[in-house]
Amino acid sequence: MAIPFKYNVRSLLLRRLSTAITAAGIALVVAVFVIVMALVAGFGGTIRATGSTDNMIVLRKGSTTETGSAFSLSQFQALKFLPQIRRDADGQPLVSPELPVQVLMAKIGGGRENIVLRGVLPIALKVHDKIRIVQGRMFNPSLNEVIVGKAMLRRYANCAVGSSFRLGRGTWKVVGIFDAGASSFDSEVWAGLHKVQDDTQRGAYYASAVLKMRPGTNVPALISRLADDPRIGLQGETEPDYYRDQSVVAAQLRKLGMLVAAIMAVGAIFAAMNTMYAAVAARTQEIGTLRALGFSPSAVMGSFLLESLILAIAAGAAGIVLALPINGLSIALGNYITFSTLSFQFRVTMAIVIQALLFAALMGVAGGFFPARQAMKMSVVEALRRT
Amino acid sequence: MGESAAIELDNVTRIYKRDRFEIRALDGVTMSVPAGRFVAIMGPSGSGKTTILNLIAGIDRATSGHVSVGGEVVSRMTERELAGWRARHIGLVFQFYNLIPVLTAFENVELPLLLTPLKKSERFEHVEAALAVVGLADRMHHYPRQLSGGQEQRVAIARAIVTDPTIIVADEPTGDLDARSAEEILALLRDLNLQFRKTIVMVTHDQRAERFVESVYRLDKGVLAGVEPARPAAIDAAAAARSRVS
Ligand SMILES: Nc1ncnc2c1ncn2[C@@H]1O[C@H](COP(=O)(O)OP(=O)(O)OP(=O)(O)O)[C@@H](O)[C@H]1O
Ligand SMILES: [Mg+2]
Question: pTM here?
Answer without folding.
Answer: 0.76
